[in-house]
Write a structure and sequence with these properties.
By secondary structure, the protein is α+β, with helices and mostly antiparallel strands. The structure holds iron/sulfur cluster (SF4).
């Protein structure tokens, strides 16, 4: 993602009720055409949604954030490495690796089944 797209996404993300397209391009210091292209990129990535509306007889859009926050993404990735209270034993392991005979790994995998 380009830096300008990241800035646009951050502005949208900070606006709880969404941000008008005209305000977005104003705050980014770019023209409306470029801003529309950036919003299209964010729409295609599923990070924002847009609502069409008319203000002072002019059609515009309100852009809202719909993507996951970075902290939510990190939590879900972290959770993939934990079974119960036990962290994946392979992370940081320096033992000679024979996964089919590894007691630590087998114990951890049994813990995955116990969670559900
Ligand atoms: S399978 Fe066992 S030996 Fe191999 S990396 Fe994982 S914990 Fe270490």
């Amino acid at each position: 993602m380009e830096e300008i797209e990241e800035r646009a996404l951050e502005l949208v993300r900070r606006s709880k009720d969404g941000i008008l397209l005209s305000r977005l391009w104003g705050e980014l210091g770019i023209n409306s055409r470029r801003c529309t292209r950036i919003v299209r990129t964010l729409l295609d990535a599923g990070l924002v949604e847009r609502e069409s509306l008319v203000m002072d007889r002019v059609r515009t859009y309100r852009i809202r954030f719909v993507g996951e926050s970075k902290s939510e993404i990190n939590v879900s990735k972290y959770e993939l490495l934990v079974a119960g209270d036990v962290f994946d034993p392979c992370v940081g392991c320096t033992d000679e690796c024979k996964p089919t005979r590894c007691a630590q790994l087998n114990k951890w995998i049994r813990g995955l089944g116990a969670e559900s």
